[in-house]
Design brief:
Length: 597
Amino acid sequence: MNHNNVPMMFRAPVENRCQLQRVIKDASCQDSHRWVEEWKQVFPESSLPQPEPPLPRKSAPGKRPRVTPKALARPTKPKPVSSPTAAPASIPDFGVGVQTRDYTVSWRLVSNSGQEEGFIRPIIGGKGFPYYSGASMKGAFLRQCSPAEGLRYCGGKLSDSETQPGILRFHGAYPVDMNWTKRLVDIVHSQQEKQVIADETTNANAQISLYQVTVRFGISSTQALEESQWQQIWQRWEQALAQGIGGRVSAGYGQFHQVTSHPPLLQVKLKGQGVASTLIREHQQRLAEFRPNSFKAALRGHTLRLLSGLTDAETAKEFTQRLWGGFGKGNGSIVGGLQVQVQVAAGELELQRRDYQPNNSKASIPLYHLKSGCLDISAMSGNLSMSQAQQFTQIAAALVKFALLLGGLGKSWRRVDHYLFYPEYLQNSKKPAMGCHWEYLEPAIDYCQTVNQLTDIGAGIDQIRQVMREWIPPEKRLPSDELSPSVQQWREPWHRQRVQVWGRWARDGKSQAIDWFHRAYQGENSIKNPHRLTGSMGTTGRIWHRMYPNYVRDDSGEVRVGRGYVELLTIFPPQKCPDTDRFLRFLRRDTEFEQVW
């Protein structure tokens, strides 16, 4: 028998035979994609949704897209409306007497069947459909109940020798239509080590998660219940959904529309645009996606940077995990204190693509434009004391302020958005889009760092560091002028010995430094030559560039948007790099930039 005829689902995880979790660069077909395609063959082809159309093109800056009469007259095909009544008959449904409700995942839902070594994928239930187990549902429900409710609904021990069965039966959940077959192959790519600690190669891994799927949950009872009792039961379940279900909840997975919980610790309304994330190439196409987990990744990385300038390496890592979760010693998992959710209303997010031609070949890069969105940071536990909730709120606010002051969120956050601040770079069709730009919206403007004078930037950074410092136990804190030897070799520890922040007023709205990233800044000198500073393909640079909106506080104490921007450069000078030393002398002597921290 030829092993190539064995479906991926039944192969052992052996090199060159089946490596589902591995993402092989430039491979024509990943094992995970083949696994998914074989899975979908169980279902009639007519029941599967149509392939997604490519993103609309975005024209080069300064150019309007050409619209021909033929294009205007072209009819548009209406999108099919998905509903439970239109679903194929083969979709599993619950029996008589089971109460059901439908809920839609706001982004992705990930759960682990535990069947494949190193590969995360959902349980596959009846008729080949993904299934959220009743046992997991019961556990999430029970956490929202009082002791008396938990005993009645879910059962439990009355004494060492006596147990009481609960009256509820949790039947789990299935998708309500076939849209669950879209975008199944997800990607996990942790870059904290590479970006903060050391220049090391990191590998992306594949996992299977359900994208914006609507699922139907089922619950039944062994006793007849009044309608008011069922309302209380579903209220408890919605409280469980509001906390998130499945895995990686703190990164935005397992969150649902139209469910409410306790108010978040911090809610920041934002708008932004930049380069969008992409999934693993499938059918010669990279699907663009606005991924909330990138927000958590940015905040987590900044947590580690800030802590590494205040304490030793082990304590910095430990407290970063306390905040955002992770794996501790012995590979034991740690549940963090905070979770991130990004709420985007319908019509507020646009995804487009920009075509370019590198090396005489065709390519495209996806872009996002978020007109308005809400970044919510909540506690993973609803049992925080008042002092704990206050401390977590202060830390979350400090991290968001730090991220939006000096960089951004999402992919390519170390550079300004070239569409806004360097359009001539993109008029050459051989250049890809680059960077991002973020701004606060009302009422979140109160969370921003106001800059009435450039010295306010340094003072704001010191305040952020002080918030993080107070979280560290006194015996673990280092003097302000001391850097722990255990982080001396890190790439980006936030300490005065290792980082510099330079700023200038850009009241005309134009960037002065962006040109230096692409052309010589002085004679033949170019900061592109020392790749250790600016980075290159596969190498993370050591310089951040931000055009920060000029938020100011007026005489009445109100925060408003002033004229222009504050242009900021954050530099982690590589050791023994003459080109970087030359550039820093240039900043100090020949430019409008001042060192503000």
